[in-house]
Design goal:
With 309 residues, this protein is an alpha/beta fold. It has a single domain, classed as NAD(P)-binding Rossmann-like Domain (Rossmann fold). Strand 4, helix 4 and strand 5 form a beta-alpha-beta unit. Helix 4 packs across helix 10. The protein is globular and about 50 Å long. The chain starts with 16 loop residues before the first strand and ends in a 9-residue tail after the last helix. About 7% of the residues have low confidence.
């Protein structure tokens, strides 16, 4: 892995199609923009139509001739996920970037009754990936990249309480959802390999990047002091979103990315050029990943045909 890998090192993406969830802001917007800059057709899969179309306009302004399109997708509503897969799936999918997420929100539920962080960050993407899998399998060189976080180290999943119903703590629930992202990629990579499929499933994280993800929870609760602290951290400590997007872009496009790899910023996992990232041992547990997979199929009603344990 190059010491100074950056967006200019992205290989030519002409003829390739990418789906980027949460592409309306932050890391998702940067990821979509840079893929479009290098020739990809990019579907901006976003919940909010106004913000999604604004992102589409911003990318077209920044990149002459950009082939981008807003497509509605609400990962907190499995009906929306199914509608996306049924009505907006392109002829080919080379890249699926499972980027959208929420962080440290007060307790809430998705449209289907799941705890919001687990439902959006893991179950919505689990369902989306499964529904798009046939197109991924039909596309040579396809990749699935899920965006996790170094904060997965806060907690392993609790297979008996996936929806944090017994004792909700926002940061623990967030850590569990990010652990679930890594366990999902671990199990997906195992199953793809067992089936002899060439699709690469990998994970990445942005380190500490300045985005609106950090402020969403405190704003929901009108915690002004906490919001000021978070904003100060974003200004002084965090790296810009353009740098935070680099590990995701690396995992999505760089040659030789290995299945089940985890890419993050080089410097202590916080900032810097993409590099292999530390991950908790529990995210590589075959038994845990299979149990989470089975539970996720049951909760979402989405199965992965042809991918057996």
């Amino acid at each position: 892995m190059s010491q100074g890998w950056n967006a200019s090192d992205i290989p030519d993406q002409n003829g390739r199609t990418a789906v980027v969830t949460g592409a309306n802001s932050g890391i998702g917007l940067i990821t979509a923009r840079e893929l479009a800059r290098h020739g990809a057709r990019v579907l901006l899969a976003c919940r909010d139509e106004t913000r999604g179309k604004e992102a589409e306009s911003r990318i077209r302004t920044a990149v002459t001739g950009a082939d981008v399109e807003f497509v509605p997708l609400d990962l907190a509503d499995l009906d929306s996920v199914r509608k996306f897969a049924a009505t907006h799936t392109p002829d080919r999918i080379d890249l699926l970037i499972n980027n959208a997420g929420v962080m440290a929100l007060p307790y809430g539920k998705t449209a289907d009754g799941f705890e919001r962080q687990f439902g959006v960050n893991h179950l919505g993407h689990f369902a989306l990936t499964g529904l798009l899998l046939p197109k991924l399998l039909d596309t040579p060189g396809a990749r699935v990249v899920s965006v996790s976080s170094g904060m997965h180290a806060l907690s392993n999943i609790d297979i008996g309480d996936l929806n944090s119903e017994r004792n909700y703590r926002r940061w623990i629930a967030y850590g569990r959802s990010k652990t679930a992202n890594l366990l999902f990629i671990h199990e997906l990579a195992r199953r793809l390999s067992a089936a002899g499929c060439e699709v690469v499933a990998a994970a990445a994280h942005p380190g500490y990047a300045a985005t609106n993800l950090q402020t969403a929870g405190v704003r929901m609760e009108n915690r002004k002091a906490a919001e000021r602290v978070v904003e100060l951290g974003n200004r002084i400590i965090a790296q810009p979103a353009s740098s935070g997007a680099l590990p995701i872009l690396y995992a999505a496009t760089a040659p030789g990315v290995r299945p089940d790899s985890f890419t993050g910023p080089r410097l202590l996992g916080w900032r810097g050029a993409p590099a292999p990232s530390w991950r908790a041992g529990w995210t590589l547990n075959d038994v845990a990943s299979e149990r989470l997979w089975v539970a996720s199929e049951q909760l979402t009603g989405v199965a992965y045909p042809g991918l057996t344990p």
